[in-house]
Specification:
Layout: H1 4-11, E1 15-19, E2 24-26, E3 41-43, H2 62-68, E4 73-78, E5 80-82, E6 86-89, E7 93-101, H3 104-108, E8 114-118, E9 125-128, E10 136-139, E11 145-147, E12 149-152, E13 169-172, E14 177-179, E15 182-184, E16 202-206
């Protein structure tokens, strides 16, 4: 289910909150291999050497690749844990997780990561927030895509503070697609509602089409 065909069609007119205190929110099931999209930039947290965004020297963080990306660039993200809140602002980037990637020893030996296989279930690309902001903020992101990630550790959006909005994703304007993600363990509810150890993921979108 694509963002516009799914969440926006059902939940967003001029701005609607999807802010759920549930154990897990699935944008779409992630099981099975997915289409490999030719990429412009690559990310793998196992690379311990130089970084230029190539498959041989991928960036170690997703935000590095977003910063370096040109409008409409495709970014391939290998399996790993990426402890960083990310932000796409005023340009479109297409983020795809679930690639096998490489190993620290392989990169050190000059072997490029494997970005020819993509299976988010087998190769989870984990965007792990710090609890102080939405894990993913899409601000005027055009037709950006976020596909194939595990999204956890989000808090209320710093963009929309002081309201308790966001958690997994905060979207402002644009027409992004959010698909094939697992969004869970994001603290999106006020303290009075925090009665369980696990709080579900949330998506807040306003002005999007």
């Amino acid at each position: 289910m694509q963002w516009r065909q799914g969440y926006l069609a059902l939940l967003v007119l001029t701005g609607t909150l999807l802010n759920m205190c549930a154990d897990r929110l699935l944008a779409q099931p992630t099981s099975g291999a997915k289409t490999v999209v030719p990429a412009d930039l690559y990310v793998d947290d196992d690379n311990g050497g130089s970084e230029d965004g190539s498959a041989l020297h991928p960036y170690r963080t997703v935000q590095q690749a977003i910063k370096a990306a040109k409008d409409n660039a495709v970014i391939a993200v290998a399996a790993g844990i990426y402890p960083q809140n990310i932000r796409v602002q005023e340009k479109a980037v297409r983020l795809y997780g679930g690639y096998k990637g490489g190993t620290a020893a392989g990169y050190a030996a000059g072997t490029a990561g494997n970005f020819t296989e993509r299976d988010p279930a087998a190769n989870p690309s984990h965007l792990k927030g710090n609890g102080k902001d939405s894990v993913v903020t899409l601000f005027e992101p055009g037709a950006s895509i976020v596909d194939g990630f595990l999204v956890t550790g989000g808090g209320r959006s710093a963009q929309a503070a002081p309201s308790w909005l966001g958690g997994g994703f905060y979207v402002y304007a644009g027409s992004p697609t959010i698909s094939n993600n697992v969004i869970e363990k994001n603290q999106t509810c006020p303290p009075v509602a925090q009665t369980e150890e696990k709080l579900g993921g949330g998506i807040y979108a306003t002005g999007a089409t």
